[in-house]
Amino acid sequence: MPRDNMASLIQRVARQARITFRSPAGPAFGENLHRLQQLLDEVRAEDLHLAPRGPSAAAAAGGGFPWTGAVPPVSYMHICETESFSMGVFLLRSGACIPLHDHPGMNGMLKVLYGTLRIACMDTLPPAAASPPPPAAAGPCHRALFRSRQHYTPASPPCLLSPHTDNLHQIDAVDGPAAFLDILAPPYDPQHGRDCHYYRLLEGSPAGAEPAGLPREVWLMETPQAADFWCGGEPYPGPRVCL
How far is CA 24 from the centre of its chain? Predict the structure, then answer.
C-alpha cells in the first residue's frame, strides 16, 4: 500500500468520506465533515483525468447516437461505493438539467470539476392544515422552502445538502457542458426508504428560472421521472480508489 502522502487526492477524499459517514451521529461528525469539505475543495478535473468535451465526444462516450436523439443528457462515472457512501462523477451536456429531486435521509456533497452549474436548493416543510395545495395539482403535493439558486464553478466551494437542509435540488448546466464530483451518504437504496423522488414547482417560475425573492415557501408536486431525462454510464478514467 502506498504511504498516505503518496496516495492520490481522490483516494484521500474517499478515505475521509468513509471516516466521516461511518458515524454521522457521532461527536466528531462536524470536524470530519469539515475536513472532507477541505479535501473535496482541492479536487480538479485533471485529478480525475477529465477534460471538457464537445457534443460529439459526449455522444461517443455515452454510447448514444446524435442523429437519433438517443444521447443521454447526463452520464455517470462510478468511482466507489460502501454501505455508508457512494462517490462518482456526473457529466452534463450543454443545456442539460437534472430535474428537481430529493435525497431522503441523506447527506450530500457536490464539487464542480468543469463548466458552470446553476443549482436551486429547497427544504421540505411539514404539512400545514391552513395552507391547502393549489387546486390544479394532479398528484401528491408537498410544502417546501425555496432557499437558494446559485451558480457554481470549479472555483466555488462544494455545495452541501443534509437530511433537513437543501435536501431537494435541481441542477442545470449553464453555457456549455459541465461535470461534478458527487458524494451521497448513505447511497440511494429503495429497500431502505431511500428512493429518488422527482418534483415540479407548482407556482411561479420553474426551479431553474430566475426566482422571486428567496427564501420563500412554495408548493411542489411529485411527478414521474421526466421522459427527456435519463442517465447513461461511462467508465471512470481516474486514479483507482481502494477502500
Answer: 19
